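hi! just following up on the protien thing from before. the input was this:
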Amino acid sequence: MALDHEYLLTKSKSFCMYPWVSAHKMPSGHTGPCCVAVADDSSGYHTVEEISDAPFMREIRKDMLEGKRPEICKVCWNMEDNETPSARQNANHTQSQHIDVVDNTQPDGSLPDFKYRYMDIRFSNLCNMKCRSCFSGYSSQWEMEDQKYPHPNNPETMIPDYEPSEMLESIIAQIPNIDRAYFAGGEPLITEEHYVILKEFIRQKKTDTLITYNTNISKLHFRDEDLVELWQQFDQHVMVFASLDHYGERAEIIRSGTKWKQVEENYRRLHELWLQGKIFLAITTTITSLNYASLWEFIEYMYENDLVPQDWQVNFALYPSHQCAWTIPNHIKQEAGEKLRETIDLIRLRTGNNHELQAFYDLVDTVNNQDHWEQNAEEFREKMNRLDTIRDENLIQILPEISEMY
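and the predicted 3d structure came back as:
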């Protein structure tokens, strides 16, 4: 029976395209319709078809078509209730051309002949960095460190030791159906499966697929492969979201494992490709208790060195709580916010209306209107001192602007 497609895409408060077109797998093995909706008990599915036909996925589809909001999707509901754009709304926009598939939904929520349209599979937590705002679930470097220096309050490591060939084979079989492929990690640019899939898109002549990355851009070569040369074989501009939280020594201690000279060199290469109209380039900055006080210096550096991206996005580190930007003592936050806005205002006067900086301008109110320092001070000091000892680093020597937090 045909459903009201227009209503589902534009007016429904519960419907999302992802359960009909996508299947997601975390490095932990947990699965879901997308990366913001992951089932706690869904380990053990090894192909995209198995994930799509899992009982929890059937239940999600039934609930959504009945106007119910599945609990697994609570991140999107919370965002929308706070009038913030959500992944659900984005999916309904970018995947609307596949809306006819909902008519194939069976009474039990199953979906015969599942076609994979949006790919987002994290094969492992393999990463060459151990960012202070991350943990072992997304970083093999963190995992090795936790195994060597166990800590009772660290998040539990749940990285399974399994052979990913089944998943890889199922993705390769679905390549003719894939419109968009999102690679994240871990670090995708050092992950072998990423290159197998990328070259398979080219071999199968499915080069109209939109390829998107979230990457630390530390490597643009893999063995004998030049990644940029592979990208140039795709019809659409590859979209690169570079995870950069600061520059120089600050970058190297916030994202331990960073070699800023190499990262900047790679960024300049990508920046030139963007200027030539060959890729889309954005920066994604994670706002934490470590970089908020000196964000203005990072922005100033990128502008003064002609490293301005096409777009600049911000994310908030929300867990663990001592990493949240609103953990910083109020007087430091207030001064940092004033300096940040002052810097942006000066850049706008000098260069014109810089829309890519608006997210930084707006985040000041979000950060400065919350005060969580007292309840997080002890944990912040304990965790940062512990990492300094284990990694032979000196945080406050590199970040003197937050030295009193120690």
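The first strand starts at residue 22 and ends at 25.
The chain has two domains: 5-120, 122-405.
cheers
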